[in-house]
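Running co-folding for pyridoxal-5'-phosphate.
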Amino acid sequence: MSNATQLLQNIPIDPLTGALAVPIYQTSTYVQHAPGINKGYDYSRTNNPTRETLEKIAAQLENGKIGAAFASGLAAIDAVVKLLKSGDEIIAVDDIYGGAYRLFTKVYEQYGIAIKFVDASEHENIFNAVSEKTKLIWIETPTNPTLKIADIAAIAKIAKANGCLLCVDNTFASPALQQPLSLGADIVVHSATKYLGGHSDVIQGCLMINDTALREKLYFIQKSCGAVPGPMDCFLVLRGIKTLHIRMQRHCENGKKIAHFLRIHPKVKTVYWCGFEDHPGYTIAKKQMRDFGGMMSFELKNDTAEEVKRVLSSTQLFSLAESLGGVESLINHPATMTHASIPREERIKNGLNDGLIRLSVGIEDAEDLIDDLNNALG
Ligand SMILES: Cc1ncc(COP(=O)(O)O)c(C=O)c1O
């Protein structure tokens, strides 16, 4: 049975009523027969049946045994960092989501957790950066927003050899295209706000793991710090997951057409998309991903601030907005939007230029999207 079929089979039918859709248990608490004697639920911060189902299904999506859902992708990232203590060190990919950068540098550095950023597209850079203080290696692949690729299996070996955890932010690829736990990662994190939810109507995060010792620690953090999603949001992500595989297929088809269109457009200087055979990470991407996705970024030949702003404001089908992974196409300016929290100098050093434009290609008709970009490019 294929993954997609298996997944639909695994979503349980409500034993009480036969409801095919997972019920939204909109309750904060549960009546107990006697103190401590209950039906497995006592308080919804600790556990909730809708969230529990989502956590199981999300774990299965990533070939994991255990899932934990959070109020946002950043809350999930935060829970992973809370596994560390003062004096520990994180090695993180340099081309990183701006919010993760802000959390690591502005929140956790002040608690004594050190961060080193390295270009993870050469795994030797990680090998060279690891010290005895390193407790966590943090990668995104493809990276947000310049689509660099890191070799998950090779980095997992470095993590194992040095007794540290490897966490992969798999938001860009989604589990339909890439499953880092199967390649040796210890933790997968998702902004479920993106492809898992898929409809730009929910903020949520998920962690997926296999290790039961880690499970106790993460559930302890989830319960103690309390950044849990509500049942309605869990329902929405569960509903999104049902169509993930088919949506991803279309995102990939459209992504490929648009990346090739942009590449030969006379006004475009560079396109960053990991499906190009001459992309430096292509061989690794092909090895660890089923397809190349619908995320890409590009730079204009005329990359003056005015022209970049004009293009960003001229599309009709691509909406100018933060976020990604929804069915509707989005256009974004990382330097002033999603990655504004990274200091300019740092950003440019990592290849994120002022003129970079990011696209989240949706599931509309590719020809319409191409016409829209063509008109906006002028
Ligand atoms: C790659 C990546 N990871 C994590 C996050 C954070 O997720 P959320 O916005 O759900 O907190 C984002 C948000 O854009 C992201 O793009």
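Result summary
The chain has a mean pLDDT of 97.
Residues 72-74, 97, 99, 140, 144, 169, 171-172, 191, 193, 203, 205, 338 surround pyridoxal-5'-phosphate (CB under 6 Å).
Job closed.
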